[in-house]
Structure formats: C-alpha cells, structure tokens
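Hi team,

Below is the intake form for Coproporphyrinogen-III oxidase from Helicobacter apodemus. Please confirm the fields before the structure is written into the shared record.

FORM ID: S-0412
PROTEIN: Coproporphyrinogen-III oxidase
ORGANISM: Helicobacter apodemus
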Amino acid sequence: MQPTIDFKKFATYSKPGPRYTSYPTAIEFNESYTLDSYLKDLREDKSPLSLYIHLPFCRTACYFCGCNVIYTSKEENKQLYIKNLQKELEILKDSMDTTKIVYQLHFGGGTPTFFNAKELEIIINLLKNTFPNFDKEAEIACEIDPRYFTTEQMQVLKNGGFNRLSFGVQDFNQEVQAAIHRYQPFTQVQKAIEIARDFDIPSINFDLIYGLPYQNLETFKQTLKSCISLNPERFAIFNYAHVPWLKKTMRKIDETTLPNPEEKLKILEYTITYLQEAGYKMIGMDHFAKADDELFQSIQKGELRRNFQGYSTKGGTQTIGIGLTSIGEGENYYAQNYKEMPLYQESLQKGKLPFCRGIKLSLDDKIRKKVIMQLMSNFKLNFTQIQKDFSINFKDYFKEELENLKPLNEAGFITLKSDEILVSEMGTLLIRNIAMVFDIYLKKIAQGQKVFSKTI
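The structure came back. Fields below:
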C-alpha cells in the first residue's frame, strides 16, 4: 500500500531540531543540579527500574557514529572498566533501593560485544547481584556489532536472560561501507543472525542509516532486500545526523559524496512502501515492526514510550544510567555520568557516584515533557488528560503554541481539534518539527548556532 505522503511538501520543512529522547534535551543539563540533589532524587523515586549500561569501547572508528566511544585494542582497558563498573554498582547499592523491580535492561555502546564472553558474564553477574529482582517479562536487550559476535557470547547473553538483540547493519553496499569505515559483508551479518536464532532469540532489530556517503535509491533497495531475507522483527531506520562540529570522525566523510535531500526522500519513500508491503508497520519517524510485535501493539493502545534507547513499551520507570557518559532519568530529573574516563575513575576512587551534571525538572518542564513525549510516541495528544494531570487549562497555557501549530494544520501534518491534536501519516515523519513547537528552550538558541542535526 502506497503511503499518502507528499514528499515535496515534506522536504521544505527540514531544519535543525532535537530527536527528543529527553525533554529538556541534554544541552540543557548543567552543574547547578548537584550530586546531593541527584542522591536525594535517586532515593525518593519509587518507580520500578530500567537499567542502561554503557560499554564504551570500539576497536576502530565508524565515521558515521555519534556515540560516545573510546577506541582501543588493549585488553587491560576492558578489565579496568569492569572493576570501575563494580565500584559504581557498589556505590549505587548504598545510594538507592536496588531491590525494586527491574522492567528493562539495555547494554549500549560503543561495542558491547567487544567484551568477550567471560567479560560479559562478569558484567551481567555484577548487575544481577546489585539488582536482584528482574520482572519475568523484563525486556533485556543488547546492541550487537556483527563483526564481534560469537556463539560463546550468545550463550552468555541467553543465560543472562537477554531476549532482544539489535544489530548494527547500516548498509550492505561496499562503496558505502568503505566511506564510513565499517566493513561487514552480508555473509557476516547472516552468520550472526543464525547464531541468535539458534538460541531462540525472539526479537531481532536491524539498525539502518540513510543519507550516508555514496548511497542512492538503487543501492539502498539492495540493502533492504538483503535485510528482509534475514527476517528481523523490527527495523530502526535513521536519517544520518552529520554533525562534524561535534564528532571529529565525521570530518573524515567527504560531504560532496552525501546524497542530496531529493535522493534521501526517494530512499525514505521507497523504504516506507517496501517495508509496509513486506508486513512491517510504521512506528513514528524511524521505526518499523511486524504487526504482532509488542512495539506496534503499544502504539495501537496509545501506550508507547520514548527514552534514550528510542521507543519502548516499558513506561513509568526510573532509568539508572551506569558507566561512562550514561544518562539516568527519574520522575523529576535527568542525571549524566562523566564523559571523560579520568574524571569517571577519580570519582569512583573517592567513593562517589561518577555524576557530573543533570537537571531538576520544573513544573513547566514536566508539562512540556508530557506533551512532547505523547506526540513523539503515540502521535496524538488529548488536552483533557494533560489538564487533569497538571491542573491547567491547556488552551490558555499553550495559547501561543496552538497558534503556531495552525500552519502545520493547514499543511495537513496534523488535525487540530477542539480537545486534541492528531498527527497525520505524513506528519509522523515530521514529528520532531511538531514537537519543537512546544519546546520553550529552543527560543534561546541563536540563529545559525550549530546544535542539532536536521529533521530531514
């Protein structure tokens, strides 16, 4: 079925904007939110838990990557990091109630599978000794680099209860892979998927990126065809965020080889159509899932949630960020660990959590966060529910924002009703633009200041 999307109209709305994995966004985190404030919020939040563990090491640089990574080939660096994680977990155990139910665990990176099977087993045991009460239906996920994935690692992950794996595919075209310094042939990815299926992993996701150097519609068609042959349950298909002012490795990419906006839109249009015809349902701006997947079921019920790991079915949790640069989230705060390894280690040696900055949410932050995350996750917003949750008159509180939404309504991206906002199919691809209308912090960013990637 062809999507009812006017891509020419869509292209004119491309501008820099947040991806809204948080609100306020991470650029608003600051040092006025102190360690003492964080410790108080850690203890007082009674929500069940979601754990994010950052494993930052990679052997070599992938030029497209925007993650916080450390390039190394030294085994002793990984061994030292495990000792640091142990110290951090010991301090956390003394700082909060670690016996609360855990609904979600996510290993991110870097390259989690750069740690060998024995090292992964040690990390998993450390975590489960600290947080002993995992829900029977907990979502336990790991990001996988197919170039570093063995049967021994899969056995350890299976024993640890992991039930979701996300494979970094990006693109199968050899010219594209050479340009982004990420060499992994189809057969290598195929073998990695076979390992996961042999252990009955029920949910596999592929990460793809469009907008990479030398990509065009014809090459991406072949990548999609190859991916479909491996039958993943989900796809996350991201628009390449070219931010060389933030990531030095991106400066190695020749910008003249990047596809132009028209070509990117052709790729996006084809991708949506192709995946829908293959039985995948579109979820938001960059996700697709099979119709029987719980991610799609959640959006049908209006229960989908968004956090730093993307879209999730596990809402209402307190996220504990563990490891270098990790970000935690509670009902009233965001908190981030140090990004620099020496500062991270120094804090742990002093017996302190490696917290460096964060933000305490004001009432206005909470209201706008609820609005933005509802739009980003479920593509509709009921005014009455917001009024009930926060004792406000929605139309009075957001008078200016509702006025600013009118052009988007006239363009067909949303339907603005008396008591709700409904996002159209075309509007889901512009959901960042729609959410930006409610972001009060954007007003203080100087015109021309390079902060965010483009929404298209």
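SUMMARY LINE: The chain has two domains: 1-20+363-455, 25-319.

Thanks, M.
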